[in-house]
Amino acid sequence: MSAGAPTIFCIGFNKSGVKSLEQVFREQLGLRVCHDPRWTYWSQTGDRDRLGQFDAFVDGECANLGTLRSLVPGGRYILNTRGLRNWLVSRHRAVERSRYVMRWALKRALFPGGLPGWVRGPMNNGFPALERWVQIRNSYHAYVLDEFRDRPQELLILNLESESEAGFQALERFLGLKTPVEPVHRNRAGDSTSGGRVYAALRGNVDDWAESLEVVDGFLHKTGLDRFADSSVVIPLEEWRLPPNGVDRLLRWCPGLALLQRRSIRWACRWRQQARSIVGIYLADRLLGLCRSQSDLSAFVPVDRYASAST
Questions:
Q1: Are 51 and 167 part of one and the same domain?
Q2: Could you tell me if 162 and 26 lie in one domain?
C-alpha cells in the first residue's frame, strides 16, 4: 500500500478469519501488523504513540471505537465475522484445549485426587460460557454498527468463511488496492502452538471439533438460537444483549461518576499491560471487571478467565 494509506483496524472477534487477514496484510501488502489483543487497551488509554507504530491491527475485540476514530482519523475498520454456530464451535474448541491442559497440570501438581469443585466450577466450559460469548458478541456488533451509522464508508463487514473470494474482492475495493489480493485460508487448529502440542500429546487423535460441535448444537437447540446458526452480525433479540451491570445502575443514579469510571478503566488497562506476575494480571483483570460497563460498549473491556476466551 502507498504512503499515507489509511490505518486498518480489524475489530471482530477471534476465530473469525484473523490469521488469514494477518497473512494478507503482512505478506501480500507488506504492512506492519499488530497481532496482539492488547492494542484494544491502547484504545482505552488513548496511546497515540503505540497506535502509530503499526499499519494494521488484528485480533482485537471490544475496542473503544470513538477513541480510535479520534486518534487515527480516516482509519478503515473491518468487522471480521462468521456464522454464529461455527464461531462458537471454533472458540469452544480452542478454550477447551487450553483448559484441558490446565486441568491436567493442576491435577499433576496440586490435586492428584481430582480437582475440587471450587477449581473445577470456574473452569467449566459449558452453556453459561457460551451464553456469555453470544451476549458479548451480539452487543459489541450492535455497538459497531451504531458507531459507523454516520460514516458507513469506513466500515466493512467481512465474512471470509461464507463469502470466500467475494470477501477478498470486497476487501480490495474497501482498501482501494490496485493489485488483487490472493485469497488465503489459514487454519486455526492450534496444533503448531506449544499448548496445542501438549494437548495433542495428552489426548492423541481425538476429534475435538466433533466434541465441541455436540456441545454447541445442544446449546443452540436449548436456547432456540439454532434458527440464528448462520447469523454473522446481530441477533435481533434483546435477551441476547448484555444486561446492565452494577456500574451501569450506579451511573444511572449518579452520572457524575462517569469520569471516575473512565479514569479507573484507563489506569487498570495500563496496569494490565505492565503486569508480569500472575497475581498482578489477576488483580488488574478483576479491577477492569469492576469498572467496565455492559450498557456502553465503549467502556467494556474483556478480561481473561482461567485460560479461556475473554469474557
A1: yes
A2: yes
Q: State whether residue 58 is helix, strand or coil.
A: strand
Q: Do residues 249 and 257 make contact, with C-beta atoms less than 8 angstroms apart?
A: no
Write out pLDDT tens, residues 250-292.
999 999 999 999 999 999 999 999 988 889 988 999 999 999 9
Decide which of 156, 175, 194 is a domain's last residue. Answer: 175
> Looking at the domain assignment, is residue 60 inside a domain?
yes
- What range does the domain containing 286 cover? 244-293
Q: Is residue 282 part of a domain?
A: yes
**Is there a domain that residue 304 lies in?**
no
Cβ atoms of residues 293 and 299 within 8 Å: yes
Are 162 and 253 contained in the same domain? no
- % of the chain residues with pLDDT over 70: 93
Condensed to tens digits (0 to 9), the pLDDT of residues 18-46 reads: 999 999 999 999 999 999 988 999 999 99
Q: 3-state SS of 148-168?
A: CCCCHHHEEEECHHHHCHHHH
What are the angstrom distances between the C-alpha of 106 and each of 17, 40, 117, 234?
A: 32, 31, 13, 38
Query: Are 21 and 80 in contact, with CB atoms under 8 Å apart?
Result: yes
Domain count, the chain: 2
8-10 vs 56-58, strand pairing mode: parallel
How far apart (Å, rounded) are the C-alpha atoms in residues 88 and 300? 21
Sign (positive or negative) of CA dihedral 52, 56, 61, 62: positive
Q: With a threshold of 0.85, does the pTM exceed it? A: yes
Task: Write out the E strands in the chain.
Answer: 8-10, 33-35, 56-58, 76-80, 155-158
Mean pLDDT of 198-202: 80
Residue listed under C-alpha cell 484504545: 43
Distance (Å, whole) CA 263 – CA 258: 9
Computed on alpha carbons and rounded to an integer, the radius of gyration of the chain in Å comes to 20
Residue 50 sits in the same domain as residue 150 = yes
Owner of C-alpha cell 467496565: 292
SS3 33: strand
Contact (Cβ atoms closer than 8 angstroms) between residue 281 and residue 272: yes
